[in-house]
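User: Okay, second chain of the day. Same drill as before: sequence in, structure tokens out.
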Amino acid sequence: MWDRQISSRVMLVAILDTMKRAFLLIGIVIVGAVAWYLGSPLFIDRTVDEALPGGTMSAEDRVMIRKMERLTAADVAAMPQGERMEMKGKMEAAGARMPDVMVKDPMPSDAATKEKTADPTVLAEGRFRDADSFHKGSGRAAVYMLPDGTRVLRFEDFAVTNGPALRVYLVKDTDGDVASGYVDLGKLKGNKGNQNYVLPADFEPSQYGSIVIWCEPFSVTFSVAKLAA
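Assistant: Same drill. Structure tokens below.
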């Protein structure tokens, strides 16, 4: 009888020990999964390269031409001959890739007739800046009005420190203070590359001063772009 009791106790201890090990293993797996979800974006880049809707140029050509537009005549004159010729070749190649745009406007009946354009127009734009020494951002943010009247927020030559659950906020404050009020445009498509976000139909550029890349789990700003007309 005593042997049976001792044997039962040994079995019970063994079962409890096995259960403890199982619970410990499950806990380690759960903690590891959470740590991977929160930490892995810091080491993994996601690159996006979307074309601007309604545009006649590729995203690569548009970024290149935008960079060239910022150059002054003095900047070009100061370039080495080889670099200047290379830039000229790139510009000519971009022009060759642009499709022809056939226009058949009627003769205006009066001076009040508005000119129509084939390409999107910029309503507001700004440059992304670092939020701090760890959360870094760069590139251009621009609000475009497409030929059909749709308004789109576009990131060009964009890069930001990656993180978990990053969102794109349209913020009222010019310095990116989300407490001033914001519109959530959705999940950030990628921490690098050209990308588009359709704006609400009632969007008014004068009511919003910045674009914020926001980390939802930690309530932290990763980058801010101040918008100006």
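Residues 47-98+118-226 form a domain with the Immunoglobulin-like fold (CATH 2.60.40).

User: Thanks, on to the next one.
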